[in-house]
């Protein structure tokens, strides 16, 4: 075998044993960060900023450091969620209902939610 043939055989063997791995998947951004089966609140518009996510809600969003902070929402759950201005689902103040599959920004005057649950 000539030296050129030996070099080609070694090079071909080396290339055939290489494993090509795809690059890391891009991290989800915005509303897409909300996991399936959850209701997500974000502290900035358009699903940006810090996120808190729930399967059934919270009687006091201060427990998640999200009291009066939510600016936008994504409902990735199969149930509607109700958000309340007051803690413990007290609906004497303003509240909002968010059906499954919805996402969007809260009215700037109504971003003061303090509790959240399936409704």
Explain what this protein looks like in three dimensions.
- With 119 residues, this protein is of the alpha+beta class.
- It has a single domain, classed as Gamma-B Crystallin, domain 1 (Sandwich).
- It is built from one helix and eight strands; from the N terminus they run αββββββββ.
- The chain has one helix at 3-16; strands at 39-42, 51-54, 57-58, 72-75, 81-84, 95-98, 103-105, 115-118.
- A four-stranded antiparallel beta sheet has the order 2-1-4-7, with no helix packed on it.
- It is globular and about 40 Å long.
- It starts with a helix and ends with a strand.
Topology, please?
Layout: H1 3-16, E1 39-42, E2 51-54, E3 57-58, E4 72-75, E5 81-84, E6 95-98, E7 103-105, E8 115-118
Antiparallel strand pairs: 1-2, 1-4, 3-8, 4-7, 5-6, 5-8
Q: How many distinct folded domains? A: 1
Strand ordering within the main sheet: 2-1-4-7
DSSP strand count: 8
Return the structural class: alpha+beta
The CATH class designation is: Mainly Beta
Q: In one word, what is the shape?
A: globular
Helix content: 10-25%
Runs with pLDDT <50, length 5+? Answer: 4-24
Summarize the structure.
The chain is 12% helix and 24% strand. With 119 residues, the protein is of the alpha+beta class.
């Amino acid at each position: 075998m000539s030296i050129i043939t030996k070099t080609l055989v070694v090079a071909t063997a080396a290339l055939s044993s290489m494993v090509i791995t795809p690059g890391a998947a891009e991290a989800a951004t915005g509303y897409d960060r909300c996991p399936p089966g959850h209701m997500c609140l974000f502290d900035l518009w358009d699903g940006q900023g810090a996120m808190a996510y729930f399967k059934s809600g919270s009687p006091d969003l201060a427990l998640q450091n999200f009291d009066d902070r939510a600016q936008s929402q994504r409902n990735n759950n199969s149930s509607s969620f109700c958000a309340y201005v007051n803690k413990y689902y007290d609906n004497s103040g303003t509240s909002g209902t968010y059906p499954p599959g919805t996402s969007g920004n809260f009215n700037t005057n109504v971003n003061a939610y303090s509790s959240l649950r399936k409704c």
